[in-house]
Amino acid sequence: MFFIFFLIGVYLTVKNNAYQRSATLNSTNEVVGTAYERLNVFKRYLNLGVVNDSLASENAKLKTKLLALTTVDSTKEVQVIDTVTNQQYTYLAAKVVKNSITLRNNVMTINKGTLDGIETGMAVISPQRGVVGFIRDVSAHLATIQSLLHKDTKISVVIKKDNALGSLVWGDNNFDIRKAFIKEVPNHIKMNVGDTVVTSGFGQFPEGILVGKLSKTNIATNDNFLSAELNLFNDFSTLQYVYVIKNKLAKEQQLLETPVKAK
């Protein structure tokens, strides 16, 4: 009864006095406004997944357009860029749904498959910078990626300062996800700590994709070549999205080179 009469008293006081009514309305509006602000923050948090998917897709489109601009032959006078017939690479954004980094042969799964145009052998990079690996197995809606952190992954790269060619591998007995090795570098090449390593353009990766920086150089081998250790730009432990690279000329190149390999 006390609380009932108390609430009636508060109601009558607020209703019949202008000051109390104004103060109560202001306080109520402040409380309601704060509550709506907290609710909107919570709703935005729940929609982060949708926003990230949208941003990844938009970035893929922008990277595709950027390739159209940077692959033009600068030695010729260009009036129109035909992105339909002249562009060799396009990007497709995909979300990582499973990722392993602690095994000797690491594989990740993405949420894109054959229905999205994904095929075995396509190259994969990260949205920030760095190579990820190659598409291995594909189903209608999913695909697996043979990560760079796999003993069978081998990527053609160059040391950027002098275009010295080498092969990027994770390395035998290496379980550090931040490091890899560049092997088969000609022994006359002078490598320095801090040199940047990028993709060579041979294979499925476009030319110039960042890989890492040399941290230990001139590791001698028994085959008249040099090796070097590098720190990878890509952090495999934080991958949430990747870009699958579609090479329009991949099948044509494969058909052309198959007879040569057979000989």
Helix vs. strand class? alpha+beta
Q: Give the total of beta strands.
A: 12
Mean pLDDT: 78
Strand arrangement within the widest β-sheet reads: 1-2-5-4-3-12
Radius of gyration: 28 Å
H/E series: HHHEEEEEEEEEEEEH
Main sheet specs? 6 strands, antiparallel, barrel
- Choose one word for the global shape: elongated
**How many separate helices?**
4
Strand content: 25-35%
Task: Write structural notes for this entry.
With about 260 residues, the chain is of the alpha+beta class. About 30% of the residues lie in helices and about 30% in strands. The protein has helices spanning about 1-15, 20-45, 50-70, 250-260; strands spanning about 90-100, 105-110, 125, 130-140, 145, 155-160, 165-170, 180-185, 195-200, 210-220, 225-230, 240-245. A 6-stranded antiparallel beta barrel has the order 1-2-5-4-3-12. A 6-stranded antiparallel beta barrel has the order 6-7-8-11-10-9. Strand 1 (about 90-100) and strand 2 (about 105-110) form a beta hairpin. It is elongated, with a radius of gyration of 28 Å. The model is unreliable at about 70-85 (pLDDT under 50).
Summary tags:
30% strand, alpha+beta, 4 helices, six-stranded antiparallel β-barrel, 263 residues
Task: Please outline what is shown here.
This protein has helices spanning 2-16, 18-46, 48-70, 250-262; strands spanning 89-99, 107-110, 123-125, 131-138, 143-147, 155-159, 164-169, 179-186, 196-199, 210-220, 225-232, 241-247. It is α+β, with helices and mostly antiparallel strands and 263 residues long.
SSE arrangement:
Blueprint: H1 2-16, H2 18-46, H3 48-70, E1 89-99, E2 107-110, E3 123-125, E4 131-138, E5 143-147, E6 155-159, E7 164-169, E8 179-186, E9 196-199, E10 210-220, E11 225-232, E12 241-247, H4 250-262
Antiparallel strand pairs: 1-2, 1-12, 2-5, 3-4, 3-12, 4-5, 6-7, 6-9, 7-8, 8-11, 9-10, 10-11
Helix pairs in contact: 1-2
